[in-house]
Design brief:
By secondary structure, this protein is mainly α. It has helices at about 1-20, 25-35, 40-60, 70-85, 90-95, 95-115, 125-130, 140-160, 175-190, 205-215, 235-250, 255-265, 270-290, 295-300, 305-320, 325-340, 355-364, and strands spanning about 200-205, 215-220, 225-230. The termini are far apart.
C-alpha cells in the first residue's frame, strides 16, 4: 500500500508539472492580448490589484536594511548550481523528466514575475495619462534645452557659488533615499496617481557587477526593493534612486521611470535633488540636440557652467573606467528582454524620455 501510494503521488506530481508547464502558452497568449488592450491592465491591475500587491511586498521586505531580494538571488544561484551538478546525468538518462522540471520552474517564475510587477509593462502609456504629446520638433527641443540649461546653471550657482566648481551632494545613502521620498510626497500633491508605497530602497549587494554591466540599479520584481548601485557618483545616485522608486510605483517603461524620477527630483525642496533632476534632463536633451542640430548644440554647450560639465565628465569617466568586453553583450540581452516586454525600442527606451520632457516643460 505504501508503494502504491508513493506511485500515485509520483503520478499526480508529474501531472501537476505537465499542467504548470503547459500554462506557459496561455500566459504568453494573454500577454499578446493585453498588448493591444492596455486599458484592461491599467484599470484592473496597475491601479487595481498592483497597489495591493505593492503594499504587501513593501511591508514584508522594507524592514531589512540589507537587500533581501539580492540575498534570495544568491541562494537561488547556489541551489541552481547544486541542482545542475546533481542532475547532470539526467540529461542522458531522463532528458524528458529533466526538461519537464525546467519548464515547470520557468512557468512558475514567469507567472510570479508578471503577477508581482511585470504586467505594468502593458499598462497605458504615461503620455496618455498626463495628456502629453509624444512627438516634438527640433525647434521645440532647442527651446527646452535652453530652458533646462538656464535652470541648471542657476541651481548650480545656488549650491556652489562658483561656476567652476562641481556639485557633490553631502548625503549618506540613507539620507538620499529618505529625501527622494520627500520629493515623491510633494509630487503626489500635484499628481495623486504618483503616490508612493513607501521607503524600500537598498544598496545592491551586486553593485560592482552591476557597474561592470553598465547599470545604475534595478527593481527586484519579486520583492519590489529598489536596488541601487552604491558606487556610482552621488549626483547620478540621486536620479537613479528616484528612477528606481518610480518603477516601484508600477511604471515599468524606462523612459517613463526616467520622467517620473525627474519630476520627483524637481519637486523636491532639496536643492541638490533639484539640480540633479534638471542636470539629468539637460544631458538627455543635449544628446538629442547634438543628433539633430550640431550648431545649436554647440551654442548651448558653451553656455553651461563649467562645474556642470565637470559633473558630466565625472560620470562619464566613472563608467568608462569599468568598460569591458562583456558589457555590450549584457546590454544586448537586456535590450531584448525589454523588447520582449512591450518596449519596442529595447534599451533605447531610456532616451525616449526627451519627448515627455519637451512637451511637459513647454506647458510648465
Amino acid at each position: 500500500d505504501v508503494e502504491r501510494s508513493r506511485g500515485l503521488g509520483d503520478v499526480y506530481k508529474r501531472q501537476l508539472k505537465y499542467i504548470i508547464s503547459l500554462s506557459l502558452l496561455p500566459q504568453y497568449l494573454s500577454l499578446l492580448f493585453f498588448k493591444n488592450n492596455s486599458g484592461i491592465i491599467e484599470q484592473y491591475y496597475s491601479i487595481g490589484l498592483y497597489p495591493i500587491i505593492s503594499k504587501l511586498l513593501n511591508t514584508f521586505f522594507k524592514w531589512s536594511p540589507i537587500s533581501l531580494g539580492d540575498l534570495i538571488y544568491i541562494v537561488i544561484i547556489v541551489f541552481a548550481i547544486r541542482w545542475i551538478a546533481m542532475n547532470f546525468k539526467r540529461l542522458k538518462t531522463h532528458p524528458m523528466a529533466l526538461g519537464l522540471d525546467v519548464l515547470t520552474t520557468l512557468s512558475v517564475v514567469y507567472f510570479l514575475f508578471h503577477l508581482c510587477w511585470g504586467l505594468n509593462y502593458y499598462r497605458n502609456s504615461l503620455h496618455t495619462t498626463l495628456n502629453l504629446n509624444p512627438t516634438y520638433t527640433t525647434s521645440e527641443l532647442n527651446t527646452i534645452t535652453n530652458k533646462l540649461m538656464s535652470k541648471t546653471n542657476k541651481l548650480h550657482l545656488s549650491i556652489t557659488n562658483d561656476s567652476l566648481l562641481k556639485v557633490n551632494p553631502p548625503y549618506s545613502f540613507d539620507e538620499m533615499t529618505s529625501k527622494s521620498q520627500q520629493g515623491y510626497k510633494l509630487l503626489e500633491t500635484k499628481y495623486p496617481f504618483f503616490k508612493h508605497p513607501g521607503q524600500n530602497t537598498k544598496k545592491s549587494l551586486f553593485s560592482t557587477p552591476l557597474t561592470y554591466m553598465g547599470f545604475g540599479g534595478y527593481l527586484n520584481p519579486f520583492t519590489l526593493e529598489a536596488q541601487v548601485n552604491s558606487i556610482i557618483p552621488n549626483t547620478s545616485m540621486l536620479t537613479t534612486i528616484a528612477h528606481e522608486q518610480a518603477h516601484q510605483l508600477g511604471y515599468a517603461a524606462e523612459n517613463e521611470a526616467n520622467f517620473i524620477g525627474f519630476l520627483a527630483c524637481i519637486h523636491n525642496k532639496d536643492l541638490y535633488y533639484q539640480y540633479a533632476g534638471y542636470a539629468f534632463a539637460l544631458r538627455y536633451c543635449l544628446f538629442e540636440l547634438q543628433q539633430r542640430d550640431k550648431e545649436q548644440y554647440d551654442e548651448v554647450l558653451n553656455s553651461i557652467n563649467p562645474g556642470i560639465l565637470i559633473n558630466y565628465q565625472e560620470t562619464s569617466d566613472f563608467w568608462k573606467s569599468y568598460n569591458n568586453p562583456l558589457e555590450p553583450l549584457i546590454k544586448r540581452f537586456y535590450s531584448n528582454f525589454l523588447k520582449a516586454n512591450n518596449q519596442e525600442k529595447g534599451i533605447e527606451s531610456y532616451s525616449y524620455v526627451v519627448a515627455l520632457l519637451v512637451d511637459y516643460l513647454h506647458k510648465h
